Amino acid sequence: MRCLTIICLLCVATSSFAADDPEVHIEPSHLQGPRVLEKQTEAAAIRDYLQAWHSLRSALAESRSELLDASFIGDARDKLAATIVEQDKLGIRTRYQDRAHDLQVVFYSPEGLSIQIVDRIDYDVQILDHDKVITTQRLNVRYIAVLTPSEVRWRVRILQGQAN
Amino acid sequence: MTFRVALLVIAVSAFQAASAQGATMTLAESITAGSAFSIQSTGSGNAVLYIVGLGQVVRRDVRLGEAVNFPAGTLYNAGRYLIVLATANGSESRAFNVVPAGQPVALSFLAKPSRLPVRLHDGITGAVYVFDPYQNLITQPTPVLFEISTGSGTAQTRKVLTRDGAAWTAMDSTAREGAARFVAQLDGVSSTRVIQQVPGDPCGLKMTARQVGPKLVLETDPVRDCSGNIVFDGTIVTFTETYNGGESTVDVPLKRGVARVEMPAYSDARISVASGVVMGNEIRWRGR
Hints:
The complex is a heterodimer. Chain A is of the alpha+beta class.
């Protein structure tokens, strides 16, 4: 009976990390810079940024850095890929579940080659050591993301968190 | 005997569990990227310390009650990290920041365009992102100096404070054609882009005419923009001759700054010259 309870609890813990769609709130842009941000451009950048979080979740949970390629580029991609290698070596896995995003575009560079987004994000992080759940914690973090355009989408070049 | 050993093992385990249960840890709210730091724990027994963030993951077996020292360079990617002290009976977690090292060492400098006409207001734009030695974006406001200079010296400077690691400026192109250096710099770190400034549109057109046999030779003075720069060769100059109800038009590219053409010398012809939207003088040819 006790065993069954533990298994049920584990299932609940695991299912809480299923791919629920996060709540997304978009603040009106508060841009520095002379370039006008068209609504379509803003929508595309935000769509691609949220997709990047989806890629990040899968890549870290499955320890597959190639899942980052579509959404990340440059240092952001390299750092996340290094984290995946590191956690693999240590036998750790991390599951991230973004619960809520509060987004604002703060900078669109004058030549149109970068968009900076500030995201106050609530997410759960679950740490597993050799498949044993060590802890699950909710964090509220202010992320700064810089996106640059690639062939068909915006890709995250910088992703850096700090206390909210 | 076996029973006694088993009892002893159970007793030791129970003691360790009791000790570990009250394990707590002390560490700074934030550390600087790349710097050494330590974590002090209380209690006794063994535990595992995890430091987990998007930028890095660390796992360390520790003994409770002892300080765990991390040498410089252990955590170097800025971000929000979760630190977990896990014992057999549970875990204690805290979040802390790894903040960028204060010293900027790199700039990502985006400048546009690479070529533009002289004297264009806010024609040159530049944006920078400022990074520390570990490629962390320095989010503390940092002054960046933008400067445009030509061979004849510094033309314009502008100091801008970064916001969330980014700064931008718009500056005028200078009056003289040629290469200009567009530099972004701070604390000994600089990045340079070369901007080619080309002459603007013709500012005034003046032509003269002289008869050579049955022809009129029409020639402009050297064509300059409003800053006195010779307009690019290849710029089209249009000569129009109106005579006895007829009209001839000839387009001629500038060559060495001058446009030259031969047209029939009709008596009482009216000849005008233009380039783009700029009209030049008009000559009424009465013949000689």
